[in-house]
Amino acid sequence: EAEFYRMLASEHRAMFNSSAQQASSIDSFGAIPLVVMASGVPNPMLGDVAEPYQRYWAKESEALSAKSSQGRFVLAEASTHRLHDDASDFVSDIVLSMVHSVRQKGK
After folding, report:
1. Which residue, 42, 47, 41, is CA-closest to 2?
2. Burial of 20 (0-12, 13-18, 19+ CB in 10 A)
3. Which is deepest, 45, 50, 65, 107, by most CB within 10 Å?
4. Above 90 in pLDDT, residue 23?
5. pLDDT (average), residues 12-36
């Protein structure tokens, strides 16, 4: 079982690293309204690399949000990757805040 989880963690690192590389190749989103949310709780299935990987993912997520002049990064500190379950009110508030902001700018 431990070997399975190590293999799974390796696949996740490879997959997410590829996504991060694709995202980092984008210079700018211009003025597109953008919210990037990240969880604050490391995934224990990643074993010894869980905490460093979580910090890396949050840092990359924050950098992604900065590629829009209307970008915003939000860290859900007490949430796992399942933000929609762990912090559903928080996620709803962030989304509604962005919708409200876009509507106000459109007036």
Report:
1. 47
2. middle
3. 65
4. no
5. 83
